[in-house]
Amino acid sequence: MSAATPSDATPSMTGSWARAFIDPAAFSHEQNRLARYWTVLGLTTDIPKDNDWIRSTLGDRSVFVQRLGDTIRAFENRCAHRHFPLRNADRGNGVMRCAFHHWQYDKQGRAVGIPRCPELFDKTPRELGATLNPVEIATCGILIFGRFATPESNQSLEEYLGDGFPILKAFTSLDKAPRRMTRKVKANWRLPLHISMDDYHLVAVHPSTFGKNGYLTTGVTYFRFGDHCAYFPGAERDAFDKMVAECRDGTYDPHRFRIFHFFPNLSAVMFQAPGCWIVMLMQYRAVAMDKSEIRIWYYPAPFQAHKQSKSFRRYTEYVALGASYYMTRVLGEDNVVNEQQQAIAVQIAEPPLLGHHEERIGWFEEAYRRAMNLPPTPVDSRVRENVEKPAEV
Ligand code: FES
Ligand SMILES: [Fe+2]
Question: I need a surface site. Which of 93, 125, 163, 230 has the fewest CB within 10 A?
């Protein structure tokens, strides 16, 4: 039985919901709380070879993800010695050795190679017991998620995504790296995220792209599952459960446009292009309180890929590339609005008035408020015994 429920009502939003757009303390509070949420750090295809690594962010902290043999591990990007960042580029390959004084770490993040250790620290590396701060990780398809563990972290990634897990897994079970692009937006990350959940602005903001196309807002059903939500055209109330079941048993075949949002900052869109279906994943990352970055991965939908010929698959790659130009135009139109909102954010005190076609923004903000009321994410995440359990890949 699915936990998803079609929408019936729009919740109200209270409080100074825009404070983190303009107040460094509120932004810092927000990012600290979000560090405990399962968040996409990168893709398994970003680190195909042993010792490949990528740098990423998790809430307010820099982290890195590294392939170590047949496992993937992640750590806070901060040396246990004098807190130098171990990784100072977005990607690379190499053992975990800090460039400041050459401390070297093993797979568990233990400092095992410390130059002149007994002489300078009066102990062996083992006695010193210095370790990197671990990030708990798990995968869904090719997505690598991470979080800083807290004493309350009791949901696995699969449990956290709920019915969204089989769907996201089916969307992202790829045998090659997808194309990617990044958009920089001079606005708080919640503004581009909000507009991606807004079906009301299409006519005004996208008149020449898809605003005149009424199908996006007529006969739509919104589903809510946990902190996450989905947009389905059509009013069949069992459509969500059906899709979950078909993604689970590998029989799902796309036939309708779909949008999913996974709290806190990931969306997955599947749309039809000439002759095939395209998936676009978007991650809305905070860079500063008034700057964000949308990471986008796009590719032909992988469903039933085994039934497709090589030439068809090649064709779909070109279609995906073409579709990305169209999506870039749409996102550009959205981002102009976001930056104009950010420009007057200091004036925003009241919560917005949300109509039925903006209902998912209200749901997102409810989850967000719950997150903001959590205790601080601990500085040291070695609070649970299983935190060092690596993701098998
Ligand atoms: S700060 Fe990393 S080895 Fe000194
Ligand atoms: Fe838009």
Answer: 93
